[in-house]
Fold this protein.
Amino acid sequence: MEHNLAVGLDIGTTKIVAMIGRKNEYGKVEILGIGKSKSLGVHRGVVNNITQTIQSIQQAIQEAEVSADMKIEGVTVGIAGQHIRSLQHSDYITRPNSETVIDEEDIDRLINQVHKLVMLPGEEIIHVLPQEYKVDGQAEIKEPIGMYGGRLEANFHVVVGQVSSIRNIGRCIQSAGLDLEGITLEPLASANAVLSQEEKEAGVALIDIGGGTTDLAIFRDGIIRHTAVIPFGGNVITEDIKEGCSIIEKQAELLKIKFGSAWPGENKDNEIVSIPGLRGREPKEITLKNLSKIIHARVVEIVEQVYVEIKNYGHEEQKKKLIAGIVLTGGGSQLKHLKQLVEYITGMDTRIGYPNEHLAGDSDEDVTSPLYATAVGLVLDGLKRLDRKKIEENTIEDQEDIEEEVNEAPVKERRSFLDKLTERVKDFLDNAE
């Protein structure tokens, strides 16, 4: 595999997508190949059948390899699922010497202290995201490095998940013959793919409606403020249609995609779809009005749950207002009239998010569908990781040159916690063989 390529692997509840991308000379991302397979063995974002998941991953990877005509070795994978939760936490350290300025090490010490938080059995901290710092009581500091002070405090957004679920994903990737290059939280990956920097500054809620789960990520002042995973997605809508109309799942899914609407008012009473009966039975007739009533009821429930999370973040306070409103993405966002329904329930401006924020202009229309938001985000994340690696290698090389002249300590690059998590999962898998 070439050095400047990254592969994103989105292990979803309904589909698994492998996407290969690289940066072009303008810094935009070109998608070279894409492969997808039906996801078997994943329920609500969590692996529940290792063997089936491995087969689905291999199928998606092979398809991507064929479409890009190259071999895939390592992947950046997303984690989501109903076991992900987040909490707010404040912590502080007292510095031994307030005559020196605050540096990376102080911040690392503070972040490591947060990692000592006691979690529920089987849970582990996945992400520690500093929100804002306080130095000696002076609040609202974005970047404390270089300042003087004795007491360094910070508010953190802490994302927690189940270790076993993360290890199972690592296991599947390893058994499919791939290297695990990075782990990213899926709501963050989708956000990178569809949100502009202005939206993140102004305040925005990204709602990614997948098959098994709906992910939420809230940004304000360019910083992620809140994440949540709601254990419902497009699949429960299909399930409801199946039950409500007494038809098989495949037909329910087709009905939803072709004729479904989140707004029941627009269908006339006499609009009817005829569905072929099973093996010699009479065809079924379903009115579109009934269909959209079933969809409407379930979508309202999902949107209201997401809105509760937005309120929990504090959207109603003046200081925390989300000026850019809501961005909907994921496969479920393609439901007709969903945008209007979300605006009606929340009273917030809404748009559908297409993952074209960082893609090259001539990208395939398929790739820029909201379906692929997470996969595009994971490719971006993989490319970012490559850039960081290059910078580190160059820094070390430059450092060695300098050290020959003057004996100086090498510059330490602060690694994100997810890199450490990736390494821990790798170590665990190596030792567990």
